[in-house]
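Entry 12.
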Amino acid sequence: ERRRVQARLDRSLSGARRALKGLRFISRATGSTEATALWGAVEERFDALSRDGLLARDDFGDCIGMVDSKEFAVGIFDALARRRRQNLQRVTKEELRDFWLQISDQSFDARLQIFFDMVDTNVDGRITREEVQELIVLSASANKLSKLKEQAEEYALLIMEELDPEGLGYIELWQLEALLLQRDAYMSYSRPLSSGSGSAAQWSQDIGDGGAQEKPATTAAPGRGRWQRWSPRRAAGRARVAAEENWRRAWVLALWVAAMAALFAWRFAQYRRSVAFEVMGYCLPTAKGAAETLKLNMALVLLPVCRITLTRLRSSWARFLVPLDDCIAFHKVIAMAIAAGICLHAGNHLACDFPRLIASSPGEYRPLAGFFGEERPTYRSLLSGVVGVTGVVMVVLMAVSFTLAARPLRRAPTRTRLPSPLGHLAGFNAFWYSHHLLVVVYLLLLVHGWFIFLVTKWYQRTTWMYIAVPFALHVGERTLRALRSKAYAAKILKVCLLPGNVLTITMSKPYGFRYRSGQYVFLQCPTISPFEWHPFSITSAPGDDYISVHIQTRGDWTQELKHIFVENYFSPCLPSRASFGELGMPEQKSPPRLLVDGPYGAPAQDFRNYDVLLLVGLGIGATPFISILRDLLNNIKLADELMDLSMETSRSEDSSNTFSVSTASSNKRRAYRTSRAHFYWVTREPGSFEWFKSVMDEVAEMDKKGVIELHNYLTSVYEERDARTTLLSMVQALNHAKNGIDIVSGTRGQDTFCKT
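Predicted 3D structure (tokens):
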């Protein structure tokens, strides 16, 4: 009774006010006006689901909008039925309306009573451990957290220990209310346990609750509100930020456009003064000007895909002037300019100047006889010559390559399924192999440019001058990559199959293989295909004596790789996480050979240049940041070892040793500017936390100075204010406060629930 009196809280406190807005049974805010509007949709679903004017108990969740939480909705239905002292299996529209008004009530006390009634199945005003366990199972099922269902009994005991210190075996409504209203208190006293690991994976409730906050209604007109938000100072600030972010892109694009314009104008003016202009008109200089820009773009389009060159440029002064992170985007822009140039060049030749040449009079044609022969050519003879055949073949090959490189077709196997036999003309493989047709295009381009019309001197045939260096550079890189990949044949040390169809491959580091955190490699498995290379981010640190990658099996190549390992090397008795190493591998079989090509530069590799890091990863896209975290951990370990060694040597009288150790320590500090790192990982499935669990545990154990903060966000569950997540949020805080272990990921941090 004394605890009951002490538990009467002042609901004006900020934490209590936030809790009073929680415990919603409907995802959206439910004021009186909006509840009436939402009832219209519920009424329509009732008419569709009801039979003979009655709605079945099992259809209650579909009717009120809890489509993915039918078991939880049935629990609400039973609680509301018990209030009527009835055991209902079907309800009328009037009864459903009464149920709807109760669950959409804005009063926290009303919602709390419904929540309590869901647990109090025997209607005695008391909740036992078994009843709490049953509600935890319902909440875990609604949020698709199977791991929590297995540990529901343990977490129910945790709730009872917290709310029933006297050991009476039950809790009452006021105790449940105290638990919910003291939410912020439980969150705050759970944080010190994570501060030892650098506040690893703190609750971050300000961000986690962002998805659940309600936006206040506004009566201002949209245009007026937008105008009120605008100000000259704010506009100037945005312009300054845009200039700082985009000035590299701007000057590169401006230089490229200026070069094309200059080449077009120069060639246009040259042919404007030629004798052929009198016959072919402006079609000829337009086609020739477009051809000059085509030569430039056919040379430039190779440079953004020269990966070795770009990786070296990332370590030079060029990274401050050239946007190396946008190389693929620039490659696509140049490709679109090539397509436009082809249309302008070929279109003017085929539809304009060729017909005018064929229709010219003998007197008009006489000055051009030295270029086309004594007899006036026909349309067929122009197309059947070397220039015509090479031009038509190039256009066809480039049309095929460009079409299959389009995003919808390139990703067709995972996005859309095309009917047979068109399915073979889409997907990454079709894009990859069709792009190699461009090798033939470049060879034909050299021939086409050498036998060009209206040119007699060799130095006027400039096509080879444009593409010689880029083409030689690209071919040289491809040759070097082929030779290097054979030298970088990696030995597989360990393979794990993690939840979410993620394959973790640990390989031996080839001799001379050096990389930076954040970079990626290309892998080839000759058993699957001797030609296909696929990029994957490196998840190990440069200081590790191995290379590891995490591969999510989405495409056909990764599916086949998973099939090879699962069928031949994984033991079928391991249900959740299959793995094999040198000891568990069957002796009569050897794993497939993997060839490694790389490493190649990526934006994340420059993390050492910054004092504070903000790393944001979505799903498997967090892989480059795992390598960075490992690298930071290795740096922390090395710094601790150097500090210990420095303290030991400082006790001795050997000043030279002391000087060398302090010099090494200072050099390491200069190489690493990073003093703080914040890692935000947003994932959809709770099983994803198994992917990098060991790294996060190591961070929590080793990072005593709080250099790294881990923030995990699980988006497959409902927001913290939802009734389906309320109890889980409290279990999360209590378990972390007591054991320092997260209930979802199993790591020593905490995760945030946020529905997207």
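Annotation: Residues 232-272 form the longest helix (41 residues). Residues 1-189 form a domain with the Recoverin; domain 1 fold (CATH 1.10.238.10).
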